[in-house]
């Protein structure tokens, strides 16, 4: 039985997760992508991680100067001290007096002589990790695809017995026959980087592993970003890989009337959609659930797309709900999300960390409109949202989704975003007019977790908190916003304050 190859970690947590621990040791890999996609940053992280483990690492640069590489490193707060850097700085120096530093002029230096210099440096250093940046210069020297392929094959055969893990960087400038099968078939694995320019906001970057022989890697596209400190990769979420045992008990809001609407409250491992027009009480009800969970000692997380954190806390305080103490204790975390700056993959990764590292038990997304803004393609939105909710359900997390609708009154529609079929429970908020006042109504139209009330109640929000009326039996047409009174006003609550 063949023993499994040892893994060489890249030092990038998300990428190592995608690769199942890193690259198999002693193989040749292709890292390809257009300019600006993050190839140099990833390559430096790969080598510097090896350097931190006491390995000899060699960066062979044909397209960039040593000063340019140091500028990249300085931008991330890295030092290249200890990294072996081989730069072809001038043909005369490399081929005349045999010095190690030279600049490659493809019109002056023959391919064989250039490769000989590089291999000589490898023999001298005996590195554990090698980055060859970039192959475009070798392609120019080769002059024809056949000679280029043979040269890459000779490099592969040269490195094979040396147990060095080699990354070949390609900027994808070649077209046509030069690219057709030249590198993919020769390399043990292929990692492709992409840079996408959207109509608004910063460029989005993503990667996918096209192949990795003998490894069950995570296929598909994975979002990534480059920040000070390096490249971050956010693996695609696969809900079926994250099942955990839990008890699907109901969670209480601390308000008995609200809990009774859902037969005791939403169950753990389910998602609840709060949908209705702006100002109808959705966020306030969500905050009531958060406060009650924190009071029970459970960790809660709010991903806030629409409001500032200060505004949200002020709103809670007006309901006599003190969230500040739970923020200070760490039981509650509120993450302000800028939809123009974050990719859906990064959002899912942040959510996973809240659940897996900080044991979040109740998670609120406010609102889905903000999530839509972060995802230009609606098809992908629904797939990623469905996978995200499946993951949260399998981890036993109770999820509350807030979905603002257009307009103030209307039908029982859940709005322009068709997510009601994904959610396990749907709570509908509406405005209605009675006795010259605008009032709020609340009802449950779906609950997969069990029985629920089919009544409509008035929702009151004031300085004392949240309260509900008895069922509004003597009205009809409340959900349309134009109710017809068929009884007395005994069931109506007093004056209701704005949300």
Automatic annotation (TrEMBL):
Coiled coil: none annotated. One of its GO terms (biological process) is DNA repair. Residues 4-70 form the RecA family profile domain. One of its GO terms (molecular function) is ATP-dependent DNA damage sensor activity. The keyword Hydrolase applies. PANTHER family: CIRCADIAN CLOCK OSCILLATOR PROTEIN KAIC 1, PTHR42926. It holds the Pfam family ATPase. This is non-specific serine/threonine protein kinase. Keywords: DNA damage, DNA repair, DNA-binding, Hydrolase, Kinase, Phosphoprotein, Repeat, Transferase. Transmembrane segments: none annotated. Residues 6-247, 249-482 form the KaiC domain. Its EC number is 2.7.11.1.
């Amino acid at each position: 039985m063949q023993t499994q190859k040892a893994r060489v970690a890249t030092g990038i947590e998300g990428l190592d997760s995608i690769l199942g621990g890193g690259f198999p040791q002693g193989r040749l890999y292709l890292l390809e992508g257009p300019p600006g996609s993050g190839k140099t940053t990833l390559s430096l992280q790969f080598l510097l991680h090896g350097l931190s483990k006491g390995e000899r690492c060699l960066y062979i640069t044909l397209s960039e100067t040593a000063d340019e590489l140091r500028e990249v490193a300085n931008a991330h707060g890295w030092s290249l001290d200890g990294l072996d850097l081989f730069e072809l700085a001038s043909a005369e120096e490399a081929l005349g007096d045999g010095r190690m530093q030279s600049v490659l002029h493809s019109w002056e230096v023959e391919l064989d002589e250039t490769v000989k210099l590089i291999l000589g440096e490898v023999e001298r250093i005996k590195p554990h990790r090698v980055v060859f940046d970039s192959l475009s210069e070798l392609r120019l020297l080769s002059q024809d695809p056949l000679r280029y392929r043979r040269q890459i094959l000779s490099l592969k055969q040269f490195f094979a017995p040396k147990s060095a893990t080699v990354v070949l960087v390609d900027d994808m400038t070649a077209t046509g026959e030069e690219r057709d099968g030249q590198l993919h078939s020769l390399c043990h694995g292929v990692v492709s980087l992409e840079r996408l320019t959207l109509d608004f906001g910063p460029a989005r970057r993503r990667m996918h592993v096209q192949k990795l022989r003998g490894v069950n890697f995570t296929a598909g596209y994975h979002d990534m970003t480059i920040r000070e400190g390096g490249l971050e990769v956010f693996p695609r979420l696969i809900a079926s890989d994250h099942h955990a045992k839990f008890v699907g008990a109901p969670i209480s809001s601390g308000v008995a009337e609200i809990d009774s609407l859902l037969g005791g409250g939403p169950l753990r491992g389910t998602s609840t959609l709060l949908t209705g027009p702006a100002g109808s009480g959705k966020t306030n009800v969500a905050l009531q659930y958060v406060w009650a969970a924190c009071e029970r000692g459970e960790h809660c997380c709010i991903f806030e797309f629409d409001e500032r954190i200060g505004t949200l806390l002020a709103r809670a305080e007006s309901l006599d709900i003190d969230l500040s103490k739970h923020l200070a204790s760490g039981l509650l975390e509120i993450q302000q999300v800028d939809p123009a700056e974050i990719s859906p993959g990064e959002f899912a990764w942040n959510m996973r960390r809240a659940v897996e590292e900080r044991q979040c038990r109740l998670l609120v997304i406010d609102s889905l409109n903000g999530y839509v803004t972060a995802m230009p393609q609606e098809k992908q939105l629904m797939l990623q949202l469905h996978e995200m909710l499946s993951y949260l359900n399998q981890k036993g997390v109770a999820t509350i989704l807030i979905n603002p609708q257009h307009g103030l009154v209307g039908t029982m529609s859940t709005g322009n975003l068709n997510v009601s079929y994904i959610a396990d429970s749907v709570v509908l908020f509406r405005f209605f007019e009675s006795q010259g006042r605008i009032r709020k109504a609340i009802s449950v139209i779906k609950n997969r977790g069990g029985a629920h009330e089919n009544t409509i109640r008035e929702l009151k929000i004031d300085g004392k908190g949240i309260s509900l009326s008895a069922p509004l039996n003597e009205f009809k047409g409340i959900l349309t916003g134009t109710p017809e009174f068929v009884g007395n006003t005994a069931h109506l609550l007093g004056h209701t304050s704005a949300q």
